[in-house]
Amino acid sequence: MTIQLLSDQLASQIAAGEVVERPSSVVKELVENALDAGATIINIDVRDGGRTSIQISDNGCGIPAADLEIAFLRHATSKLQTVDDLNAIYTLGFRGEALAAIAAVSKITVVSRATAESAGIRLQLDGGIRQSRDTVGAPQGTVISVENIFYNVPARLKFLKSDATERKLIDEFVVRYALAYPQVRFRLIHNGRITFQTSGSGHILDVLITIYGPEIARQLLTIGQDEPIADDPPAITITGFIGPPSVHWANRSHIVLFVNGRLVKDNQLTYAIIQAYHTLLPSGRYPLALLFIEMPADQVDVNVHPTKTEVRFRGDKPPFGLVQRMVRQTLVADAPTRQMSAWAMGNQPEATGWGGEMGQPVFARSEPPEQSSLGLAWPEPPAATAPETETDASSGGLPIMRVVGQVGAAYIITEGPEGLFLIDQQAAHERILYDLYMSAWQRQQMPTHTLASGTAVSLAPHQAELVQHHSATFAKLGFQLEPFGPHTFMVRSVPIWAAEHDPAQLIVQTAHALERPSADDLPRHLIRTLSSQMAIRQGQALTHTQMTSLIQQLEQCRDPFTNPQGSPTFIYLSVAQLAREFGRL
Ligand code: ADP
Ligand code: MG
């Protein structure tokens, strides 16, 4: 076989294959052209998943009558002039390929009227060959109808999926562009029915509500960055929305990325986002994220592939780390207790934290100090183990907080560095007591309170038997018991946190716990029971000093986020969340 130049038509069809893979590629290219033309209204009218026809109309700047045929030639573009322009692309299109490619594989009718012109031109092309050209009355803008896609490329036609699948791909594109261009009014019609439309209000949240419904949209967290990251002007800004960990999907299709207004696919960026949710999502589930990355145009190479959906980051600071950090920070700052706890646990190296040494100097005491009525003023946070510097939520523990007050004699309000904490006083105290108690148990140094005259406790016969049987354990738990007549014990001492409690109640509850099966080992199980017995209750008014003491002790707990039963100890409301609730964003 001799070497021959491909015919123009064949060359066009081969080139077209790179740009126009399926109907959704036509939609993408034509919508991008409309956006480049400055349109504020874009209608997309599709028949049979795009197989029969795709019509896109816009109110953009239009194509000048003199250029209309040229626009359909290969490598014809108004968006690029010199090779230098390639270094910084500000438009979605620039390769001058799309119209030629689409024309090569379909029958096209275009009607366009440019801003300065008094009439429009209608042009018809079959397989890229001009069929007719007329002057027509038309509003400013462009309407392009693409019919019988691949009618002349049977091989391609065969590869199209079902109408429903092709339609889904089109929907995906339109929805994504609607998110990135909320100021543009989009309308999508399938087989004569409107299936999606946006208001063009300019508010992304409006578009998100249209797509996900108010319930999910309401929960989305804003990623915003007003302050320059490094230099002035900012090198990279990242804005957008991410879902809370409670919103997740089986695939990655809800992770949508725009770089300088261009929809991109980027595995590394997608991975950075998924990593930011690490430990927060069930495995095999993916978050919702809509991120807009803005960076100097010369830092991104968009000329990687004819479809222009891949980018390469030039320069020394690719945005992966920044994206991951910002997503993570937003999650942590806005996450309610449980998620935050999961996050912190997933991040804190096991061996660190203040838990191990907690309270050591204090256990030498055998008498509760004054003000001990709730066990709240005790122990003082030992100086050696108190955190030296302020920590914030992202380092795993609780930040330093200031007590604001108490609500409903049940919740303590505190102010942290960037928001408000509502602390469940009972759950918090359960956590504190449990940690102190466990730590004392492990060191076998139980601080006890000696009852001056002893207290006699009578039990039901079977309970008395149980207590007798486990008397050694009771002793280790700080309860010194002596037999004192039938089914009765004399209590000589109690754990120090129980100084003000009714010993009989505690012993009865502990006996109950002995009867209940537990997944935990016995000490843990009993200490959990006792901690919740000894903790302050809802309905207990606290003084400012008591609240401060409680908060300080909670700050020192290793896992301050939940009580020993796993319920949250607090709810966090960030300043950003408050602003959102008040409609200040
Ligand atoms: P590119 O977008 O890369 O420039 P296209 O083949 O998509 O290449 O479009 C060729 C040219 O046709 C564009 O540069 C633009 O000048 C013009 N054009 C295409 N679509 C429109 C439109 N909807 N409104 C105005 N001009 C358009
Ligand atoms: Mg284009």
Task: Summarize this structure briefly.
The protein is of the alpha+beta class.
Describe the overall structure.
This protein is α+β, with helices and mostly antiparallel strands and about 575 residues long. Helix content is about 35%, strand content about 20%. It has 17 helices and 24 strands. An 8-stranded mixed sheet has the order 5-4-3-6-2-1-7-8, with helices on one face. Helix 8 (about 265-275) packs parallel to helix 9, helix 11 packs across helix 16 (about 545-555) and helix 14 (about 505-515) packs antiparallel against helix 15. The longest helix has 19 residues, at about 425-445. The radius of gyration is 34 Å and the shape is elongated. The chain starts with 7 loop residues before the first helix and ends with a helix. Mean pLDDT is about 85; it is low at about 335-395. The chain binds adenosine-5'-diphosphate and magnesium ion.
